[in-house]
Amino acid sequence: MADTVREIERKYETAATGADARIDADHLPDLTRAGRVATVAERGTLALDAVYYDTADQRLAADGITLRRRTGGPDAGWHLKLPLALPEVTGAVRDEIRAPLSDAPPRELTALVRSRTRDAPLVPLVRLRTRRTVHALEDAAGRPLAEVAVDDVRARRLHPEGAARTARWREIEVELAPGTGRGAGQKLLDEVERVLTGAGARPAAAPSKLARALAETAPQTSPETAPETAREGAARPAPAADADRPRCTAGDVVLRYVRAQVRAIVELDPAVRRDLPDAVHQMRVATRRLRSAFRSYATVLDRAATDPLGVELKWLATELGAGRDQEVLADRLTTALAEVPRSLRLGPVSARLRSWSARRRAGARERLLAALDGPRYLALLENLRALLGAPPLRRPAARPAPPVVAGAVLKDYRRLAHRIEAALDTPAGPARDEALHSARKAAKRIRYAAEAASPALGRPARAFVRRTKQVQQLLGDHQDSVVARAALRELATQARRAGESGFTFGLLYGREEALAARSERELPELWAKVSRPRHRAALRA
Question: Cβ-count burial of 32 within 10 angstroms (0-12 exposed, 13-18 middle, 19+ buried)?
Answer without folding.
Answer: middle
